[in-house]
Amino acid sequence: MKTIERKLLVVFGSFIVAIILVELITNNFLLEKYYINENKEIFIAVGSEISDNYDGQVQDFEEYITSIDKEEGISVYVIDGEGTILYTSRTRHYYDGISKKLQEIASENKDMEGYTFGILEDTSYYRSSYKITLTKRLEDENYLILRKSIKGIQDSVDIANRFYIMVGIFIAIVGGGIAIYLSKRITKPIIEMSNVAESITKLDFSKQVDYHAPDEIGQLATSINTMSSQLNQNINQLRDDIEHRKQLFRNITHELKTPITVLKGYAEGLQYAVVDNIEDIQEYCGVIVDECNEMNTLVYEILSYSELEWSETSINKTSFLMGTLMKELMERYEKVMEANEIQFVSHIDTSQRVCTDYQLLERLLNNYIMNAINHVDDDKKIVLTLREEKEFVVCEVYNSGKAIPQEEANKIWQVFYKGISSNSSENVGHGLGLSIVKTIADILQLTVGFRNEESGVCFYVLIAKN
Description:
5-stranded mixed beta sheet, 11 helices
């Protein structure tokens, strides 16, 4: 048996026993006193009534006090100063033997005013007994004595005690069964929650507390289940994040390996004088510079991605015209497009206003444009479009080129995933551009995506209207 179940059984059992003991103790020590105290008021009232109706007419008065005896169970006596019984509610010859005792009572209260009340021992007949006695002096100097045996209440107490014992045994049996049932019912979800909590400490989140009730224990069970699910989700996310970082580290190593190998080869060529004319030396040096620039670009992209992915990027939302940003991008890439003989076209609605982080959105569109440059085909056409669509402002970057296969639709947003250039069979870029786009979109809560068109691919971002 579990500790908490045993404790509850002890508590319930102790409570039942305590109730039975309290009933027995109060019945033994307090019931008689309570009974006597309640009779005192009755005796006083009866004594006052008899005193008011006392007129000395024997026959009528005795019938009157006899009726009181029958109704209230109180023996009534009127005696003189010598102890002689003048009136009684009982048979005279039966009570002649108590005259001496009544005389003693009257003698003890000879100078009293009002009444006396108490419990007196009566040894006048057969055996000793205790009676409730009220003595009152009447106007003619006679005494009114009211008496009632307390044997009845003593017998009642004994009977009640025996009854309480039997009832107590019955209550103990029934209550014990109820206590066992309640303790199991109460402790079952608690024990189950304890087992689930223990499993959580061992990173086992497969168990759930199967208890549903609109009470505090039910709320606790729900909270534990929610906590388990959240911890499971967070730990899985943490594991995915760790695996993601491991994969990123492997990819970074792979990306750096090629330029380092090239640098090492050309540097060794210069070191061991593989080439000796100035043209070849300059060519070697040019390759080394290009590879260094390539590595520098890669490091910058990696740092940029890490900053967005794992740092708390501050968001500075402002309201601005999208047309202004799009025109700046057109001017920035105009020379690049001319140098690569790319037709750069724009369709911009200058009236659209949005509220978001200007710099982060600019970086997102920059990466879209660079991705378009890397994948444009021989038609060499890139189009920037800004338009309104329901509650959104839509920015699109189109480049002529090969369509993206459906199986690669989700892969293109992954870190270091490289598409195939439209004008070559070699991978282009470092595979970080679209990953940065997706990360920025998540930070700004924007929607990004792409669609294949007849002669190219169009990437877009949806921005809620201001």
